[in-house]
Amino acid sequence: MPEESITGAVLDCAGRSLDLGSPRVMGVLNITPDSFSDGGQLFRHEGIDQEALCRRADAMVSAGAAVLDIGGESTRPGAAAVSEQQELDRVLGALTMLRPRFDVVISLDTSSPSVMDAGAAAGANMINDVRALTRPGALAAAAASGLPVCLMHMQGQPHSMQSHPEYDDVVNAVRTFFMQRVDACHAVGIDDPRIILDPGFGFGKTVDHNYQLLAELPRLAALGYPVLVGLSRKSMVAAILDRSMEQRLPASLGLAVIAALKGARLIRVHDVAETFDALAMVDAMEQRQS
Predict the structure, then answer these.
(1) If I label 120, which of 21, 94, 108, 138 is the partner at 20 to 30 A Cα–Cα?
(2) Is 234 known to be catalytic?
(3) Rounded to whole angstroms, how far apart are CA atoms 193 and 182?
C-alpha cells in the first residue's frame, strides 16, 4: 500500500492529466445491445450508431465529463457473454471515432487482454476492469499498456453474481480483495500511481451490502488509492423508492453526492450534466474546509 494517500493525485493517463483533487465525472458509453440502462441506444444489430455515439459523447464532454468510459460487453446481472472479437469490434470502432474528436481521458471498460492491447495502441488512456485483471493475460496486458487501471470487486460473474451473494463482512471482504489485487499488480510492475479502486456496487451484492459499502466508503478510501464508484440508476435505488429506470436520476444524484463526501474521486454516471452540477457543490464546500 502507498505510504501516503494518493487520493488527490493527478493521474498520468497516457499523456493526459486527470486531476482527482476534486470529484470528477466519468460518462458511460455502452456500445452494447443489452446494457441495463442504455443498451441499444448506441449499438444496434447492424453495428455502432455513429451519429448517436458522437452526439452523446459531445454532450457529455460539453457538460463536464472528465472521462468517457467505452464498454462493449454488458455486465448487468444475467448478461450473456460476448466473444473477444465482438467486444474488440465494438470498443475499437467507438474509440477510433471518438479519439480524434475529444481531448479528454478515454477509458476502456474491458476485461479482455486483446482489447487492452489494441485499445492502448489506438489511444485509450485508462483501463476499467470489472474483473480486476483476473482473466488470463489481463495483468500482463495492463502492465504493458502503461495505463492507469481501475480494479473492481465482483463476487462471482455477471451471469450469476446476484444469485444469493453472501459475506461475513462485505467491507472487510472488499478491502482484502483490493489488497490481494494490488499485490498482483505490483508483481507485474503496475505501481501505485496507476491504481484506482472500485467497490463494485451491484456486482455480487445485496441492497444491504451496497448501502453498507457506501456508508463505510471512507474505509476503502483510507487504503490510499483513488476510489471510483458506479451508482447511477442502479437497483439499489429501486429497492428503496420503487422507481423505474427513467425516474432514478434524483436518487442517483443523492448517491453521487454521498459518495463524493465519503471520499470517492471518480463518479461513473449516465447523466453527466446533472451530476457535474451536484459535484460542483461538493467541491465548493471542500475547498472552503480547513
Answers:
(1) 21
(2) yes
(3) 11
Do β-strands 43-44 and 47-48 pair in parallel, antiparallel, or remain unpaired? antiparallel
Q: Which of 76, 131, 205, 234 is catalytic?
A: 234
The pLDDT, as a whole number, for residue 23 is 96
Which set of grid coordinates corresponds to residue 104?
A: 479528454
* Residue range 71-97: mean pLDDT, rounded: 84
Is 205 annotated as catalytic?
A: no
Cα distance between residue 270 and residue 172, in whole Å: 29
What 3-state class would DSSP assign to 151? strand
What is the spatial distance between Cα 18 and Cα 217, in angstroms, rounded to a whole number? 22
pLDDT at 199 over 90: yes
Give the amino acid at 190: I
CB-based contact 40:47 (threshold 8 Å): no
Residues 6+ apart with CB under 8 A from 161: 77, 154, 155, 203, 204
What are the backbone dihedrals phi and psi of residue 164, each rounded to the nearest 5 degrees, phi first? Answer: 55, 55
Phi, psi angle pair for 70, to nearest 5°: -100, 125
In contact, 133 and 148? CB cutoff 8 Å: no
Which set of grid coordinates corresponds to residue 98? 471518438
Q: Is the pLDDT of residue 4 over 50?
A: no
CA distance 115 to 103: 21
